[in-house]
Design brief:
Blueprint lengths: L1 E7 L1 H5 L3 H10 L3 E8 L3 H7 L9 H8 L4 E8 L2 H9 L12 H5 L8 E3 L3 H11 L9
Antiparallel strand pairs: 1-3, 1-4, 2-3
This protein binds guanosine-5'-diphosphate.
């Protein structure tokens, strides 16, 4: 069993896509073990994406991630990190495979509907950034 961290980003929440995205997540055999709505502050978004702070799109990315509420979740399953990344599809929806979340719901390379951790260490860090251990259930 492995855990990964997911965000349904503000574009997808605004468009009313929480339901179908969660349906795709559960349909892929990943289980929700924690979730809540959150409107990120500028400081939270800057900290979360600190690895990208030198990139030219950083300010736009922070502005987008603070533009409305998102749904933060912890997902659990065998090989959850890689399986969720595969379900999400490529960062740029033009390059995302058919049947992926981003192919269906992303608008562009920035407003791309979902986030998922890319490795075990980042998954641990990202889960701890938004959830206390007592907020995560066992299933
Ligand atoms: P991910 O792991 O697929 O989410 O991609 P990255 O870690 O490379 O980028 C983090 C997030 O920054 C992406 O999901 C996008 O929301 C945004 N992003 C990435 N590349 C670009 C870009 O070239 N331009 C803009 N505006 N945003 C980007």
């Amino acid at each position: 069993m492995e855990r990964t961290f997911s965000i349904i980003k503000p574009d997808a929440v605004r468009a009313g896509h929480i339901g179908p995205i969660l349906e795709m997540i559960e349909g892929a055999g990943l289980q929700l073990v924690a979730t809540r709505m959150l409107h990120m502050t500028q400081g939270e978004a800057e900290g979360f994406y600190a690895v990208h702070r030198e990139r030219p799109f950083f300010a736009d990315l922070v502005k987008f991630m603070t533009s409305g509420p998102c749904l933060v979740s912890v997902l659990e399953g065998d090989d959850a990190i890689a399986r969720y990344r595969a379900l999400m599809g490529a960062t740029n929806p033009d390059e995302a495979d058919a049947g992926t979340i981003r192919k269906r719901f992303a608008s562009n390379i920035e407003q791309n509907a979902v986030h998922g951790s890319d490795a075990p260490e980042t998954a641990r860090e990202e889960i701890a950034y938004f959830f206390r251990a007592t907020e995560i259930v066992s299933r």
